[in-house]
Write a structure and sequence with these properties.
Layout lengths: L1 H4 L5 E5 L5 E5 L9 H5 L14 E7 L2 H6 L5 H11 L3 E7 L6 E6 L21 H10 L4 E5 L1 H10 L7 E6 L7 H15 L3 E8 L8 E6 L4 E5 L4 H7 L23 E5 L8 H6 L2 E5 L2 H9 L4 E6 L1 H7 L13 H8 L4 H8 L6 H15 L2 E3 L5 E3 L4 E3 L2 E3 L1
Parallel strand pairs: 4-6, 6-7, 7-11
Antiparallel strand pairs: 1-2, 3-12, 3-13, 4-5, 8-9, 9-10, 11-12, 14-15, 16-17
The structure holds flavin-adenine dinucleotide.
The site of flavin-adenine dinucleotide has 33 residues, from helix 4, strand 4, strand 6 and strand 11.
C-alpha cells in the first residue's frame, strides 16, 4: 500500500531470505514527502467498529459452492450479491503457475470462482489499492476481501470514507512465506513429473475438519493429502514454520475488527449434524452497521443461527492470540536452500512440536476413561485412574 500511495513511484520491493517482500525506497526518486509513513496502518489506532459484534454460524445453501469453499462459503454469498448489483469484488487468486497468489478484481459471477478457497500464503497486493480507489471514485459498489491488515491498509490509503465500499476479512493466524510455497509446489511437480495446473488448499474430500490439500497436474495425475500427511499443511498448522514474522505481533486480529464483516472456521461448533460438520461451517462477525445491512441482504442464500461470541472464541485462537514462534524456523529456511521442501520440514518438525503436549493429554484422557486395565499376567483390574463413589463412577 505504501508503494501505491507514493506520488513519485519511488517504492519497490525486495525479497528477504524467507521469500517475504519488504519495501525499499529509491533515494533518487524520493521527494521526502512522508506520505508512505503517514498512511502506514502500523502507525495508526485501530477502528471504531463494534466492540461486541453480532455473531452467527452460517453456510451457503448451494452445496457445490459450500464444498469448494474453505468453511461455509459466506464469502461467495456476499460476493455474488455484490456482482448482481453491478458491483466489483476484490479477492485473492493463484498466479499462472499456481506457485504464487495475488489480488485482482472480478465483475462477473463466473469470474468469482478464482477467489473461492483460502490460499494460505501472502498475496501480492501491488497496485490493487489504486484500482479500488479508481472504482470508488467512479461511484461503483466494491467488496474488498483480504487479511485484516490488508483491509486496514485499504482504509488508510483512501482519502475519505466511501459509502459504496464493503470490506470483509477473515480470522487470520498469519500468512505463509511465498518462497516456502514455491518450494513445496516445485517438489510436488518433480515427484509427479509434471507442472501443476490446479491447487485446492482446503479440499473437503475427507471433510471440512480433516483440512486437506488437492492438486491436479498437467499430465493428468492428482495428489491428495490431509493435514496429518502433507508436509506443507504440517509446516504451518503444527509448527508455524513459515509465517511472516510481523504476524507474531499482529495488532489487527483482535475485536473490534476493522472490516465490516469477519469470517472464519467455526471450529468446535457442537449443535450441528455430522453432515454439516463434513461440509463446513463459517463463523461470522458483524462488525458495523454496513456489515449488518449487507449480511441481511444475503439471508436468503444462507442458513444462519445466532451465537454467543464465547462459543467462537473457544475453538478459534486466531481472534485473540498470535501464533507461537517455532524455534526451528531459522534452521528451516537455511535447509530450504539445500534440500527438498519435505525434507526441510521433516528435519525441523521434531518431537518438541506443539502437538506433543496435546497428544500426551489425549492419551492420558483415553487411559483415564478405561473401566479396566489389563495387567502384566493378563488379569483385569479396575482402572486406578478412575474414582468411584459408591457404585457409580465419577468423572
Ligand atoms: C492466510 C489465511 C489465514 C487464515 N487463518 C484462519 C484461522 O486461523 N482461523 C480461521 O478460522 N480462519 C482462518 N482463515 C479463514 C478461512 O480459511 C476461510 O477463508 C474463511 O473461513 C472464509 O471461508 P468461506 O468459506 O466464507 O470463503 P472462502 O471461499 O474460503 O473465501 C475465500 C476468500 O478469502 C480470500 N483469500 C484467500 N486467500 C487469501 C490470501 N492469501 N490473502 C488474502 N485473501 C485471501 C479470497 O479472495 C476470498 O475472498 C484464514 C484464511 C487465510 C487466507
Amino acid at each position: 500500500m505504501c508503494a501505491d500511495s507514493c506520488p513519485t513511484g519511488a517504492i519497490g520491493f525486495q525479497f528477504d531470505k524467507e521469500g517475504f517482500w519488504y519495501p525499499e525506497i529509491r533515494k533518487d526518486k524520493c521527494i521526502n514527502c512522508g506520505k508512505c509513513v503517514n498512511v502506514c496502518p502500523q502507525n495508526k489506532q485501530s477502528s471504531g467498529n463494534m466492540k461486541k459484534p453480532a455473531v452467527y454460524s452460517a453456510w451457503i445453501k448451494d452445496d457445490k459452492i459450500r464444498m469448494n469453499s474453505s468453511s461455509g462459503g459466506v464469502f461467495y454469498a456476499l460476493a455474488k450479491n455484490i456482482i448482481m448489483q453491478g458491483g466489483y469484488v476484490v479477492g485473492c487468486q493463484y498466479g499462472n503457475n499456481c506457485k504464487s497468489v495475488y489480488h485482482s478484481i472480478a465483475h462477473t459471477v463466473d469470474d468469482l470462482e478464482k477467489f473461492i478457497g483460502s490460499k494460505y500464503l501472502q498475496s501480492d497486493t501491488r497496485r490493487i489499492y489504486k484500482k479500488v480507489k479508481r472504482l470508488l471514485d467512479l461511484n461503483k459498489l466494491v467488496l474488498f476481501c483480504g487479511t485484516p491488515c490488508q483491509v486496514a491498509a485499504l482504509y488508510e490509503f483512501l482519502p475519505h470514507t466511501y459509502s459504496k465500499l464493503v470490506t470483509m476479512d477473515f480470522f487470520c493466524m498469519g500468512v505463509n512465506s511465498p518462497k516456502s510455497f514455491w518450494a513445496y509446489v516445485t517438489e510436488q511437480e518433480r515427484i509427479h513429473n509434471s507442472d501443476v495446473r490446479y491447487i485446492h488448499m482446503r479440499n473437503k474430500k475427507q471433510g471440512w475438519q480433516n483440512f486437506g490439500i488437492y492438486m491436479e497436474f498437467k499430465n493428468g495425475k492428482t495428489f491428495q493429502a490431509n493435514k496429518d500427511e502433507d508436509f506443507w499443511l504440517k509446516g504451518f498448522l503444527e509448527y508455524n514454520l513459515y509465517i511472516r514474522p510481523s504476524c507474531y505481533q499482529c495488532k489487527y486480529r483482535k475485536i473490534p475488527r476493522i472490516a465490516d464483516i469477519s469470517v472464519g472456521d467455526f471450529w468446535g461448533i457442537r449443535t450441528v449434524s455430522r453432515q454439516n460438520l463434513f461440509k463446513g461451517v463459517s463463523a461470522v462477525l458483524i462488525n458495523s452497521e454496513k456489515g449488518k445491512d449487507v449480511f441481511e441482504n444475503i439471508q436468503e442464500q444462507l442458513k444462519c443461527k445466532s451465537y454467543d461470541l464465547q462459543e467462537v472464541l473457544k475453538g478459534n485462537s486466531a481472534l485473540e492470540k498470535p501464533p507461537a514462534y517455532f524455534e526451528q524456523r531459522e534452521k528451516f529456511f537455511d535447509l530450504l536452500y539445500r534440500v527438498p521442501f519435505s525434507k526441510a520440514v521433516r528435519k525441523c518438525g521434531t518431537k518438541q512440536n506443539n502437538r506433543t503436549e496435546e497428544w500426551r493429554k489425549s492419551i492420558e484422557n483415553f487411559i483415564n476413561e478405561l473401566p479396566y486395565m489389563v495387567m502384566g499376567g493378563g488379569s483385569k483390574v479396575r482402572n486406578p485412574h478412575k474414582m468411584y463413589k459408591g457404585r457409580k463412577m465419577v468423572r
